[in-house]
Write a structure and sequence with these properties.
267 residues, alpha/beta, Rossmann fold, two-stranded parallel sheet, 9 helices, globular
């Protein structure tokens, strides 16, 4: 009887190790859900925009869109969520151009028309920095607002922590992906996670004001993550709670649009 139990435990231990190994090697497929677009894909947004390519040191071409307002007050540098491509994310541009800001969006590697594939966290950050370095040749940093949504919040916080934009806005941020894993997949050891996206480490290094928007009905990234980030705030930082807001559709929420305009006017 004891031998049978021991053998069963050994089998379970082996299966657990194999599961962890599998998760380590396929985690990009569990975190990132890109929509690939053909190189000749034609965007059909009903507002002014231009396509901007960026060549990485390893030869990959990243793709971005720059939407322009009628009378620009500055630039929103927008890092989108983990699914889709600029074909759909570009629809949120109207919220920001209507507020008088140009909007730049980047498709990460493997998303939209961007080439290559994401293979580690530092590469992800380096690509974002490359696009930022290029776009700030057109805009003074004092006129740039870095904005990250969902998976883009960690990269946005990292970017702001090592640069000097006017303002950092985070929509539905996580405390870190380590924290999310511990909360949602407790049996999986966090050390296998290649993408830690530690917003909690970057936020205290941000010298500019930080504003967080989070819905209290978020079913993907718990609102409690922003409450935990609030404990790291400087006096100038703010958490704005959107009551009844889930994870998706924030940029179309009238309450968000109203509060966003106040934030942009204040900072």
């Amino acid at each position: 009887m004891k031998t049978g139990i021991v053998n069963l435990l050994k089998i379970l231990a082996i299966l657990y190790v194999l599961l962890c190994c599998l998760l380590y090697f396929i985690q990009e497929k569990l975190i990132f859900f890109p929509q690939k677009l053909a190189a000749d894909y034609k965007f059909t947004f009903n507002r002014r925009f231009q396509e901007l390519p960026f060549k990485t040191p390893d030869g990959s071409i990243l793709h971005g869109l720059l939407f322009t307002a009628d009378s620009s007050k500055g630039l929103i540098f927008y890092l989108h969520g983990n699914a889709g491509s600029l074909a759909s994310w570009g629809e949120v541009a109207k919220t920001y151009t209507n507020a008088g800001y140009d909007l730049f969006m980047l498709d990460y590697r493997g998303y939209g028309k961007s080439g290559g594939s994401i293979y580690n966290e530092n590469q992800f950050y380096d690509d974002v920095q490359l696009a930022y370095d290029s776009i700030r040749k057109k805009y003074d940093e004092k006129d740039i607002v870095v904005l990250g949504y969902s998976i883009g919040t960690g990269a946005a916080a990292k970017l702001a922590s090592v640069n000097h934009p006017r303002l950092l806005i985070l929509q539905a941020p996580y405390f870190s992906l380590i924290d999310m894993m511990k909360n949602n997949f407790r049996i999986i050891p966090s050390f296998i996670l290649k993408y830690k996206f530690q917003t909690n480490i970057f936020l205290p290094k941000c010298k500019m004001p930080v504003v967080i928007f989070h819905g209290d009905q978020d079913e993907v990234i718990n609102y409690g993550a922003s409450v935990k980030l609030k404990a790291l705030f400087k006096p100038a930082d703010t958490l704005i709670t959107l009551h009844g807001q889930g994870h998706n559709g924030m940029s179309d929420n009238p309450a968000y649009i109203s509060e966003l305009k106040k934030v942009l006017a204040k900072y």
